[in-house]
Batch of 4 targets.
Target 1
Amino acid sequence: MEMAHAESTNLSPWARPESAILALMGPGDTPEAYQERVKDDMGQLDISVQRSRQLHNAHSPLLSLPDELLLDIIRRVRDATLESATYPRAHPWNVSVTLCRRLWGIVTGFPSLHTRLSNVGHSTEFIKRSLVRSYPLAADIHINVPSQYREDELSQWTRLLRSHGHRIEAFSLRVPDCDPFGITATGIANWPDHLTSLKSLQLHVDRNKVQNDHRLIYLKHLLSVLILASRASCLASLQIDGLLPRPRAGGIVARAVYRRLVVLYLSDIQFDFEDLADFVAILSAASTLERLVVHQANLKAFMGSPLHPFTDSRQLPLPDTLRVLEYSGSKEAEFILLEHLVPSNPDTRLVLTCTDPSKHSAAHISTALKRWMSARRSTVVEAALRIANKVPDGRIQYLTRLSLWSSHEAADTGHPPDVEYNGRLRHAESFEDMMTGPSYEHLQRLRLQVDKTAYSLLQVWKYGLDSWAPRLRDLDIRLHPTSEPRLSSEVFYFCEWLRYLNVNGKALHSLTVSSEVADALDRLEKSRLQSSDALSKGESHSDASAGPLSWREAVHNVFVTNVY
């Protein structure tokens, strides 16, 4: 396998196009199956040769591009390959793009192409040559499943990191879930210690492959050892996937590592009681943390349990240096923790993403948003809700984004919102379902935008907004033409609500609508509208004696605009 991935030293691009090698006959192959596979390989080889001959032509479209653009294309191919967590089916990126002499020259002649390295599809020897080729540039390295290596190969990696570790700024390691003799753990335990210029460390564990509790404890200990070995003074970013380490076991050294962190990512953590204690210890030690990202923090084990650690409404304060908390999940159990995270700094922002539209998750999110704004001691004065296109492969759900500000000045100057909630909305649900949680008693401005969807915003305006936004003064509704109201019934209640506000002394200061919405409001038959007296008394329009007030007269300032 290593030979298939080795870099060719032959300058001729015709010697081995795309390093195609005919497969050997396996022990379980029949002669017929082997001949069929050889035939397929020969066909792929012929295709590679034809592509190489076409690209060798100086007039081909690809080769007419300047080197700078070709370099960017090759870099994108490289990054797409390196971001794969498993071995790719195709050849390594440097082999796939080397179809002619010119492209081969770009791959070998630009050192920056060899600063992001991975053992996914590449041998240790190739990575070693790439580090030499890219000297003295800074490098990023990803090592996937080091348990594939024998003891001598692990030693080779140790020597490589000892020689070039001072250049490595980002290091990603997928910790092996199976290491029966502890050889891999012994070999990799001191790797981070050689990375003296390390700025970003990523440690990945596949939690679902851990077979028993003893292995779980062992892996948590290994994560702790790797983090303790990361003593680079410039280490500012730490990403942990699958399991939490044991920060309390490291004592002063562990606290020193977490104290330097500016960014912390926690992903796919299935919390138990020990994990919660470790999480609190990490937050306490991270005294300079500015960004915390929590993705799929699952507390399913505690749901319905009398030993639930949060039955007493316990609050977990975040570091007062934190600028933003980015929290995301896809099921109910992943939003329990969010309810109990409270900001210590009133300027801490929350970016929340939920891909589960169920009512169970919505209830947790509503509670979390309410507590978050309460802990900040801030009120919502401006809000914006955008309903975007349908969820991919979803027939009745739309992507939504709710933004909340506690200051008009911040919103006017383009400052990020205090709270950003990215969620989903069902076709028949009211947009108000996306705005549950915080109090809108002081809301003064509301912007509603619907992109090119079939969602009708005005169809659910029957109950108005005055019950939960009594101080609303400026309303901006931007609907895509495909979402504009087609029937008068869709705008009837909206028109009545505008007139109701006017009659009761709470008329909007400004209303911005698209020309299509304005036309639909103008087409309403006046005979259907209630009189002003009926609106103020809550009577039906059949009992009205006074004439109806038009929607334009019910608002102080009307602005009609063309959205698209």
Target 2
Amino acid sequence: MTYFPFDSQHCELHFGSTSLDDTELDLNFWRQKDYFQNSTVKDEYEFPYIDMKKFMPSNEWKTDGEDEIHVPAPRRM
């Protein structure tokens, strides 16, 4: 935060369930234009649409029913 607002942060969100495994959990991502249509933060960040058709699970490891997706949300300057 030293060079705010010109710095960058790395944030990770982990979605999972303590009672369901990955075969019982269905995550649906929203589109930014529908969600932020009347929001004040819509001009501050660029939230990308996530196309889950290209998602490929790792063959090396698997967590407890969690899938990881890294999506940058760059701040508009």
Target 3
Amino acid sequence: MWTVRVESHKCQYRQFLMRSTRTLKKLAALFLGLVLSASACSLKTPVVPEGADSFLEKGRQIWGNACVTCHGADGGGGRGPALKESENRYPEIADQMQVVSDGRDGMPSFGGRFSAEEIEAVVRYIREVL
């Protein structure tokens, strides 16, 4: 009978350790998720200057929803290239709008997702605010 109790206690202890390990792994994953979320929230998207037209604000919203992931909050680049001073690469706004609409080299096309007016808004935001 004594042996059964010892084995029973060993089994209970082993189960306790396994549950504790799983709990620690879950807590570590949760902590990592919180840290990554906090660091992502600390990225600041440039603010549209006060008094600017609502078109730029619309562009900022589209930028935040569709472009930040690849080009960075401030347009400094990431998976996609930096878009600061993009007017040097695309002197004509229509050329830059074409790239956004049709996509290129790893960039998806947004012509089916956004209207021409929305594409113009985000391109103006890139050129005038970033």
Target 4
Amino acid sequence: MEISISETLGDITVREDYGSVHDGAYISNHRLMSNHDSVTSEVNTATFDQYFEGANEFERSSCAILATDNVDEDALHPYNSREFVRRDVTAAIVLTQERRTKQTSTSSPASETGACRDWSQRDSEEEIVVVMRRAAFMKIYSPSFEVPENSLLEMNERISKVMTQTIREIIDAQS
């Protein structure tokens, strides 16, 4: 996933460690540097993720959990507020497999252009859908150099959109 996000954002990603912890759980450390509108930002996070097959203590069906938090201090790679904008990210994503009644679209001339769709449900057919629940918080630190306010706002909005789109693309590719 970080490769897709890095390619889209034009980041330089350094993944320091990626190892299995226990029962398919993984923990990793990522340092990302992004350059957008001639402003370079840096992020240093620790990430934990795990996939749970079938019913488990969290859900009635299979689910995946990803949690990430910022690394506040790193002796090997300290933040450089003289050259980069520091971004702290804390996020959690839970993907679950749910069943729902299959929906079909009845076509009308307007629906082919995307203007109007009439959704109806088939009572007998069910489908499996992936539901994503997420919460993300980002703090952007004021650097010791001048940065246009619109660049800071764009920095905040851009990463959220790209992460969500990347997760959707991964799910769609596996469907």
